[in-house]
Amino acid sequence: MAAPRTSSRGGAKTAKIPQVSWRDPRPAPVVLVFGPEEVCAERAIAGVRDYLRAEDPALEVTDVRADDYAPGTLLSLTSPSLFGEPRLVRVSGVEKCSDAFLQEAVSYLDHPQEGATVVLRHTGASVRGKKLLDALRAGTGDGIEIPCAAIKRDGDRVDFAAGEFKAAQKRIAPPALRALVSAFADDLTELAAACQQLIGDVEGDVTEDVVTKYYGGRVEVSAFVVADTAIAGRYGEALVALRHALASGADPVPMVAAFAMKLRTMARVAGNREPSRQLAQRLGMKDWQVDRARRDLAGWNERSLGMAIQATARADAEVKGAARDPIFALERMLTVIATRQPFGE
Length: 345
Prior knowledge:
single chain; alpha/beta; Rossmann fold; Zinc Finger, Delta Prime, domain 3; 5-stranded parallel sheet; 15 helices; elongated; disordered N terminus
């Protein structure tokens, strides 16, 4: 977490509100759940609710829409009840809030109600509500922020899936993790659901065979599965997997990118005998990435790895318009990598 900064409001200095992981949410008088990733936001909001309900099963939960807001609603819902039950008010659509809500929410920060937790959901899709966010982030209202940044990069998706299994204290083999992420590369919601299905259904560790059994129809057309098979030297299987992937609508450009990513990691790790954790920290990688690259390097040498990288660079240019037949470019690259020999030999 970054060092606290101070801001001035009414002459008094207040610390910037803390940021809390969506995997480990906690309540506060005001909780800002900010960012576009709905899966993470839903987990965060549910986590706050579960935390409060565990403290008091009598928790009153109310949902409010900031874009369809009736004046006075926020104060009414957060005011203490006759029996003093804790209150949770979940406010959605803050990125398109009405003027009435914005005015009352900013005022509420100065006088949050005791026993009430207000969760503000802002997707970041607009600058609407900026005055409220700025006031809250400056430290007004004794709040916290739960960031829910977009998860788009392959490495971020791997971290997300790994976190699902870690949170459930469930072991998943690195190849199985990569295959699972590759199978659901376009939909984080589906990836999250697949993780939970494996966590709930599978006894013992989750292996690559288990992932293939559950999601083989999706895994077999993955760019990373094609790359893994070719790098392992299984030429026939890799060629079949490539043709299945292309028949399923795979784009040649990200296909080459998957090969390039794998080979680049192998090249960075090759010849280095440092412990995995130490090397991973120095290279800005994960431990499992170093371990996987070292396994992938079995049977490779400096000559064959250099030749594979050159073939991939050539294919990258060709599938982006330097050649008329991107499919042939892919097959030639795969042949060089899987056979570890120049094309045609």
